[in-house]
């Protein structure tokens, strides 16, 4: 019993150093994490410059305020922002004009200007994170490179094929190879196929799956709803409010959005099993057929996926501007140029800290689950054996997920 009491006291002593919550008055003492000078008024004259920077807060000596924000950050890094870092957009040529004359290096001038503001108000300083300084010059332009030219030609060709295919479908009827090829791009024909009722065609049993359309529509709505607040999370004037939403039940639909995506995996697995069982009425799925099924799945997903990936890796950075454009869209563009092949191989969910189309992780997962499902059908031929394998697999996955969450916590 004495040992238990000693351990409890020791644990309480260790936990006492953390600050789990701050009231509004205490929170207002912290330096603002996000602060943006006006962007467009800053870039109206030649030589004007605007920089968005990440900076780590430090203090020359002992600082009670620095200790508070550090302990508050450490207490729960799942629900608290990292208050050791600030993210400010600074109009360099207006806010920091006097410091530019005293420093030859632009980053040194920017850091000195930032420190002047922090010292005066919070008695703190900041060191710029060197690879997180994003500057925009007056009427800044970048030369169009080869990759952008290639993507532009491909996109224009696809648009022309859609126009020609639609016109050909409306005006002509031809069974030639070229005619059938153009009809593949007909908007009229593809619209009709897209909205065709389930079960239309050679397999009437597919009509049983009509309810899947409603489930997919509801799930898609929830996915869009869950991602819509992200723009406010990237930069906000009130991070304390967002931190407190973790304790508000009504916001849990956003923070547990991964569970919503699981419905896509369940629907995909049901459709895969249903189609394979129908196919097995005529012939068994064997290992020689396995590469063909994997390639068909890859070809179904990849063309549209690759088109979006190519546009984001090239032209996306030119489609807008603003204080957050380079640190968000520009970083994603560079990441996609670096990691594009992981996406085309559906291995992007294994690439840590990549900003390239992070929302497409579910495509890589779905591809792997499809391959594993095909492996199960090839290895186990009996229906009872398949149920046992999938059941054991399901519980192992649950155990792994629970263990990973426990270790992370």
Short précis:
The chain folds into three domains: 14-137, no CATH class; 145-196, no CATH class; 201-408, no CATH class.
Share of residues in strands? 5-15%
| Beta strands, count | 4
User: What topology, given as strand order, has the largest sheet?
Assistant: 1-3-2-4
User: How many domains, as an integer?
Assistant: 3
SSE string: HHEEHEHHHEHHHHHHHHHHHH
Quick check: average pLDDT?
Answer: 84
Q: Total helix count?
A: 18
| Biggest sheet descriptor | 4 strands, mixed
The helix content is: 55-70%
Backbone shape: globular
Poorly predicted regions: 9-16, 405-409
What radius of gyration results from the CA coordinates? 28 Å
Q: Label the structural class.
A: alpha+beta
Helix-strand blueprint:
Blueprint lengths: L1 H14 L8 H5 L5 E3 L12 E10 L5 H12 L9 E7 H4 L1 H4 L5 H17 L2 E13 L8 H26 L5 H7 L3 H8 L15 H18 L2 H5 L4 H6 L7 H4 L1 H23 L10 H25 L10 H20 L16 H19 L3 H26 L1
Parallel strand pairs: 1-3
Antiparallel strand pairs: 2-3, 2-4
Features:
59% helix, alpha+beta, four-stranded mixed β-sheet, 409 residues, 3 domains
Protein architecture, described:
- With 409 residues, this protein is of the alpha+beta class.
- It folds into three domains: 14-137, no CATH class; 145-196, no CATH class; 201-408, no CATH class.
- 59% of the residues lie in helices and 8% in strands.
- A four-stranded mixed sheet has the order 1-3-2-4.
- Mean pLDDT is 84; it is low at 9-16 and 405-409.
């Amino acid at each position: 019993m004495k040992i238990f009491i000693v351990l409890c006291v020791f644990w309480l002593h260790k936990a006492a150093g953390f600050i789990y919550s701050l009231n509004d008055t205490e929170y207002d003492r912290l330096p603002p994490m996000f602060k943006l000078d006006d962007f467009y008024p800053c870039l109206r004259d030649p030589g004007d410059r605007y920089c968005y920077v990440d900076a780590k807060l430090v203090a020359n000596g002992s600082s009670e305020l620095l200790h508070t924000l550090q302990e508050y950050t450490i207490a729960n890094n799942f629900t608290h922002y990292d208050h050791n870092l600030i993210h400010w957009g600074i109009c360099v040529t207006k806010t920091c004009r006097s410091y530019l004359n005293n420093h030859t290096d632009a980053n040194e001038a920017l850091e000195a200007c930032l420190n002047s503001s922090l010292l005066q108000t919070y008695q703190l300083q900041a060191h710029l994170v060197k690879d997180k300084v994003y500057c925009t010059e007056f009427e800044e332009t970048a030369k169009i490179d080869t990759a952008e030219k290639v993507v532009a030609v491909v996109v224009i060709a696809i648009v022309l094929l859609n126009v020609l295919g639609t016109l050909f479908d409306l005006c002509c009827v031809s069974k030639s190879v070229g005619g059938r090829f153009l009809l593949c791009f007909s908007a009229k024909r593809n619209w009709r196929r897209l909205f065709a009722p389930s079960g239309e065609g050679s397999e009437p049993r597919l009509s049983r799956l009509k309810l899947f359309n409603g489930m997919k529509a509801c799930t898609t709505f929830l996915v869009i709803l869950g991602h819509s607040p992200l723009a406010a999370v990237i930069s906000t004037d009130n991070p304390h409010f967002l931190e407190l939403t973790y304790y508000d039940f009504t916001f849990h639909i956003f923070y547990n959005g991964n569970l919503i995506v699981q419905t896509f995996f369940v629907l995909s697995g049901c459709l895969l099993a249903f189609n394979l069982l129908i196919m097995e009425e005529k012939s068994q799925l064997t290992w020689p057929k396995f590469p063909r099924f994997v390639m068909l799945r890859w070809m179904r997903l990849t063309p549209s996926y690759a088109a979006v990936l190519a546009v984001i890796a090239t032209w996306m950075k030119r489609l807008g501007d603003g204080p957050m454009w380079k640190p968000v869209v520009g970083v994603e563009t560079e990441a996609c140029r670096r990691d594009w092949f992981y996406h085309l191989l559906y291995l992007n969910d294994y690439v840590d800290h990549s900003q390239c189309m992070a929302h497409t992780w579910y495509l890589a997962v779905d591809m792997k689950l499809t391959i594993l499902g095909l492996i199960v059908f090839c290895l186990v031929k009996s229906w009872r054996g398949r149920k046992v394998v999938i059941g054991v697999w399901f519980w192992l996955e649950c155990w792994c997920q629970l263990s990973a969450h426990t270790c992370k916590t």
